[in-house]
Amino acid sequence: MTRWPLTLRGTGAVLLGVLSFALAHAFSVPALVFFAVLLLAAVAVAIGSLYLGHRPDHVRRSFSPETVGVGGELDVHARVQCRTLLPTVAGVWHDRLASGVTGDATGAFPGLRSGLVAGGHTVDLMYRVSATRRGIRPVGPLTVTTTDPFGFARRTQHLGGAVPLTVTPALIELGSLEDLPGDAGGSMQAATDRLGQGADNLIPRAYFPGDSMRRIHWRASAHRGELMVRQEEQESNPEAVVVLDRSLPRWSRDALRAPGEDPAFELAVSAVASAVARFVHEGYTVAVVDTDGAELVETIDADDMTAVEAMMVAFATLTARRDGSLADAATLFAGLTLGPVVVVTGPVDEADAAALAPIVTHTSLPVLIAVGAAPDGLRAAETAGWRATALEPADEAARLWADMTERGGIRVG
Questions:
Q1: Measured between alpha carbons, how far is 194 from 202 in angstroms, rounded to an integer?
Q2: Confidence at residue 4, expressed as pLDDT on a 0 to 100 scale
């Protein structure tokens, strides 16, 4: 869309020209007619100079980096292709930013020489923005406003459309788990603990429903008369599960409508993403699921940080859902023996703590993160064996994580 409104000076020139015509007729002064024609002609030439021989401009926009986390910054680069037969004077530009993205997206647009001499022109614009809310945030269109050399007319062009910017959850650097005892540690720690040990020195353990048949230790099974599995394979390929309770009763309806709208839900998504990144770095294979077992992303292999980045992009559009119940999570772990299990939810009560209690016996590190204060529910969860904490926006998530993981270990068995 392109408009050519008159400036205040141009409007005044037109009114003065019309008034001169009227006065020339009323007082029979021919010089006023000449003055009026001169003014109106000057305005017409000014308007014509803004678009005469001026082809539509185009803009290409890119981001560096391509995605940004909440609280992060990136550079926006806009390349404008221009072509005009007549020289233009300097103007101003403004790029439209969606809510959730802030920055000084304005500046001076340079004047251009005649295209008869210089041909096409390329104008590079760059500015920095900060991301304040998760989601897919449109950037653009670019608005360029120029005036004629006399300042009579103004041309406003809206170039290009909106380009989506992906804003991912805030990623918090959580502390290492390397000090945890036994099978709470990841594959990197397990490998270090076994240095100098032979395979025969590693003791098999009893088979549990849900164990992979590939892990059965046939020699030990024949010797003991019951199925045994290789304990070392469990340690070298540890599994962690991170559960996000997206059920609407835990969050406001804003969390259902769009990402980035409910601060409590945003804190939960950030906690999940941060925990997954920590576990993958520690050498865990991580499953990220909802309370009903539905995968939020595909299972991420140990040390696969590329998959973590893909998860962050997928989480940019994650919202709450209408159905679901925290009580459903307990059924996911029946018959399984796992490493850490992290459950992230909203405020919990004593009934929620009772529903989650069975999970504790199936994990080496049961962590419950409840966004919002619920002292009675948290105390009940801790009594059941969870390392539980309430997380508020003002809290330091990294410190709370360190406090939980440094508490006495709760082991499977």
A1: 9
A2: 55
